Amino acid sequence: MTSLFALVDCNNFYASCERAFNPTLNGKPIVVLSNNDGCVIARSGEAKALGIKMGAPYFEVRDLAEKEGVHVFSSNYEFYGDMSRRVALILQEYTPNLEIYSIDESFLDLGNFLHVDLEGYARGIWERVPRTTGIPVAVGVSSTKTLAKVANRLAKKSAKANGVLVLTDPAHIEAALKRTEVGDVWGVGRRYAKKLAQYGIYTAHDLTLKPDSFIKKHMTIVGLRTARELRGEPCIDLEMAPQPKQNICTSRSFGETLTELKDIEEALAAHTVRCATKLRKQQSCCSALTVFLETSRFALSYQMYFNNRTVQLESPTASELVLVPQALEALRAIFRQGFRYKKTGIIVSGIVPANQVQQSLFEPDHRQRDQELMQALDSLRSRYGHRSVFYGVQGTGGKWQMQNSHLSPCYTTRLEDLIRAK
Amino acid sequence: MEAVVLPLHPLNEERFLVIIDRGNSLPLFTTTVQAGFPSPATDYSAEPIDLNTYASNHPASTFLVKVEGDSMIGAHIMPGDLAIVNRDIRASSGMVVLAFVEGGYTIKRLEVRKEAAYLVSENEKYSPIKIDSPEGGMIWGVVVGIHRKF
Prior knowledge:
Chain B: Keywords: Autocatalytic cleavage, DNA damage, DNA repair, Hydrolase, SOS response. The complex is a heterodimer of chains A (422) and B (150). Chain A has 13 helices and 14 strands. Chain A is of the alpha+beta class and 422 residues long. Chain B is 3% helix and 29% strand.
């Protein structure tokens, strides 16, 4: 074996963050809701045991939650983001080669640690992260990232593993793959699982036995890569610097349903500014934008309306002076009077590095001017807050603003929210 | 640019630690750049003093806590102070700790005796809290310093 990866995954991350600063929640069921208190996006083990499903709309589980004394929180990304950063800082002490895969998962390259007591090393991470941050984790170690994911999953599920599983012995790997449903493998998913079941492939182990040609035919080259990784052949390397995103979407449900174009324009303008800011942060420009507008998914069918409009831009840009008016024009084109709208958003695509933008021959060159203005806006907003400078069309009413009536304090990022001690 | 005076006056009590608000650090020295004459100081440039690092050697596990009560005034921990709490240190007898007991946070001195652990105030008004079972309370972190704004 020549390579080694560890996957460190925080247990029920959002719920654990809430618990870290509020020990009275230990052992109690917790759910965290999506933006706008719409759906359940995180559950503590106790909430899972009550049968509350991931993604369930809050209004459907509210009665059960009240009856069972479930603690309900609005998502507090400012707080979770800081806790995630702290966990990553601790993990960086274990290896310089760290990939922060998501807010609650990181891959560690342990490539040179072949002669180390891996079990003890992983157990050290498992013990230290919760002690220093309050966030419990599970650790899976194996020769590829996909196998490390398998190990991590079993580390969480198996009482014997108790949060740590090192899969290096071929017999153990085979046993683990036999215990893992193919749909639970990283990169496979439910849809492929259904298809694979038709060919008698139910477990991860079944998949590794199929010839490459079969896998490539049914699951493309990406699926083949997954199968090879399951066989212990590393194909997916650590991504230490995040790749620039190929498209960026900014959208949010409104705090209340909206019927007036003007209110929706305010929301879309704000989303567009956010989106343009993200573009500039990764030093990119976009070539096209898509605006979408929708009513509630739970509305009656004749009251439902979904539409979107894509606009190809003259030349790639990240300037709000171009993106905001274009987005609003697209919105006006798809807006229909008489519906109760729940959500709007913008997706930018055709993303190119800002330093490779070709200027259109027939348009006036405002690029230099726009760029300087955007730089000024970015630095003002980063210093004084995102709302310090905004466009008139964004409005000040904020009818569309999020509802988050169960928000916990930002314990680690705001002085006024610190825990208080007698 | 102006020279900056470090406001780190010695205080009567050694345990006092002054941190500039928001963790901003101060440059140790600055130089003006003039064409033609390279500054002799540039060869000796150093990182500015980082008061965060001074406050705690382990930022990932360091948290701030607002002090509300007067139970530790004997240890010069006053209401309104910010306590700097490091979770990377294992609490041992004699340390000032942040504990969670009876549904709330409290800062006390930890005293481990044979029969139980005690959370001891430094104010005669309050008697020690005895903890002799895991349910009795938990140590959340060790208080490594305080910050007070004048």
